[in-house]
Amino acid sequence: MLSQRMLDALWQAFLDTLYMVGVSAAIVWFVGIPLAIILVTTAKGQIFEAPLVNRVLGSIVNGFRATPFIILLVALIPLTRLITGTTIGVWAAVVPITVSATPFFARIAEVSLREVSSGVIEAAQAMGCQKRHIIFNVLLPEALPGIIGGFTITLVAMISASAMAGAIGAGGLGDLAIRYGYQRYDTTVMLAVIAILIAIVAIIQYAGDRYVYLLKNR
Amino acid sequence: MNIAVAPYRKAAPSGAADSQKTSPTNPLHLRLEGVGKTYVSGQRRVEALKDINLDIYQGEIFGIIGRSGAGKSSLIRTLNRLEDVTTGKVLINDVDIQSLDTNGLVKLRRRIGMIFQHFNLLSSATVFENLALPLKAAGIRDKQRIRQRAQELLRLVGLEGKEDVYPSRLSGGQKQRVGIARALMLDPEILLCDEATSALDPETTQSILSLIKEINKTLKLTVVLITHEMSVISQICDRVAVLEDGALAELGPVWRVFGRPEHEATQALLAPLKPKISDDIAQAISATPADNTSRAIVKFFFDGTAATYLPLGILSQRLGGDLRLLQSGIGRLQGHPQGELLVSLPYQQHELAQRLETINDLVSTVEVLGYAVPANA
């Protein structure tokens, strides 16, 4: 069985993971959605049509999405040091997790936003809505179920990324699993970490699905 | 066999119902001058509209009909600049709407309500929130006022108490009623209907059409609607324009276009509404009379130019009295009775053509379809 010391360590790691993912998630939400809106509205035929902006931004997003997380983790070390002043610990992990998850979420949100029927946008234009009204009163509310669904997926991906960030000393559940479970052959800790991760993912997925269901079945 | 197709030449009658409603005595509301629209995609250029000239008067219900791809959607979208014209001008109350800046355009659109084939309601918002959107967009923040206006219009469209329902809980007809209420929230002067009944079943179509007509009367709105169904035009429109291949093929009061369609496109659109000669009569007809007792089968066509009634007694008298009605398809549009009568009369060699000549002033066209034995006709 797990010792008291181990339980404390697990608890601390759990909190660290929540912390890492929570802070990153907040940033991803508030950066990803505007990014998605820009990607959608600057596309051809949309309300802020600007092909050049669209192409440049799209390429940057694709570039980050193409880079594997484990490489991003290392490549971003200078940036992480610049922003957080350190390259280890919870805060240091927030930077790569955010940088990798934002483009991912932006693309998912973009798809949901793009699926808002052009007829509804046209109706809004016809009734004299200005562009900001269209974004805040039409695009975002109509795409919300899809965006929430996409955010759920993003959160799960971020939890898995946070575990990987443990490899470079980020702390959290992944770090614990590697140090005790892998390096010290402590299978119990490993299994405990996996159980906790499964529980977190299940809860997030359930909450996300439930919310989307409620939004869609009003 | 086809005798005497007499072109109708009588002067228009006085006091027909349509002439007060659509005559140019009503002030001009919308004017299209040489409107053209060309879509360019890569190397391909598609001319969706070609040199359209139209005047639409205040308070009329103006229908635009055409087959799919004729350009009617593009045309109605130029009226609130959801589409910009490539050439020509759209004038609303004498203002060239192309000259408006973004702000002016937004203000113009608030004076023009629009309803759509697929309703285009926000699925994420309740009926009330849907109705509130145009007011919010117009900068009206007063909750009380918005709620009051929404209730007023829901009463008008017959949906009291549905404020807090989401559109997914409504039927198609109810959704369109919400669409109409939303279009009227800012008290517009023009209502554009983009195939507003094309997604509805016949019964709901009836109720939506009568609602549009009622709104047109009570709110004194100018209504411009596009449709591909002639029945919609015949039920509520005062005047109709027929579009074919991006160009204006025909324009006039509905009864006139229905009574005497001149363009091939109009005739094609009207074809489904034309009565078919029933099978038993069609089979009984032969090209030549069997003997002197045979009866001639004759089709009279009334195009509606004639009068407010059809003088059947006089008609029968002039043709010798022995007139049998086989089939009738007479309707009444804007006070003009029009349609076809299929009758039989005694065949008398050499006399038939002469007799039919005598009713030229009563009937628009006369066509002898053939002959049948008296037992059959």
TrEMBL record, chain B:
Key word Transport present: yes
InterPro entries: AAA+_ATPase (IPR003593), ABC_transporter-like_ATP-bd (IPR003439), ABC_transporter-like_CS (IPR017871), ACT-like_dom_sf (IPR045865), MetN_ABC (IPR041701), MetN_ABC_transporter-like (IPR050086), NIL_domain (IPR018449), P-loop_NTPase (IPR027417)
Pfam families named in the record: ABC_tran, NIL
Entry GO CC: plasma membrane
Residues in ABC transporter domain copies: 30-270
Cell compartments where the protein resides: Cell inner membrane
Membrane topology: Peripheral membrane protein
Primary residence: membrane
GO BP annotation list: amino acid transport
Residue segments, region Disordered: 1-27
Record's keyword annotation contains Cell membrane: yes
Composition-biased stretches (Polar residues): 17-26
MF-aspect GO terms: ATP binding; ATP hydrolysis activity
Record key words, sorted: Amino-acid transport, ATP-binding, Cell membrane, Membrane, Nucleotide-binding, Translocase, Transport
Family: Belongs to the ABC transporter superfamily.
Function: Part of the ABC transporter FtsEX involved in cellular division. Important for assembly or stability of the septal ring.
PANTHER family given in the database record: AMINO ACID IMPORT ATP-BINDING PROTEIN, METHIONINE IMPORT ATP-BINDING PROTEIN METN
Identification of the protein by name: Cell division ATP-binding protein FtsE
